[in-house]
Amino acid sequence: EGRSLAFLGAPWLRDFSNASYAIFLIHFGVSLVISALVFNFWSESIPINLMGLLISFAASVWLGRLIHVHIESKPPSLKRVVQWVAIFSASSAVAMLLS
Predict the structure, then answer these.
(1) What is the dihedral of CA 65, 66, 72, 73, to 10 degrees?
(2) Rounded to 5 degrees, what angle do the CA atoms 44, 48, 52 make?
(3) Which candidate, 84, 36, 44, places its Cα nearest to that of 64?
């Protein structure tokens, strides 16, 4: 039982937890972009749809972690707000263009 509690203190799990809000914010745009690509080119392929799902998950975690480290964990400023808005707007615009 002590081992299971020690697992919760693992550095990678703490990093994942700290970045969870950024992951949540970026996952929708990432999912839209990847879904639009898969749907437009390989809508009938189950393996490619599954791969798209996995890529969407991995890209959301990776981008969310980058956003957390380079934007979210920095002191608040107007520049940080503009970066957040730009990232969200860009991912949404790409998804709309691809659909």
Answers:
(1) 80
(2) 120
(3) 84
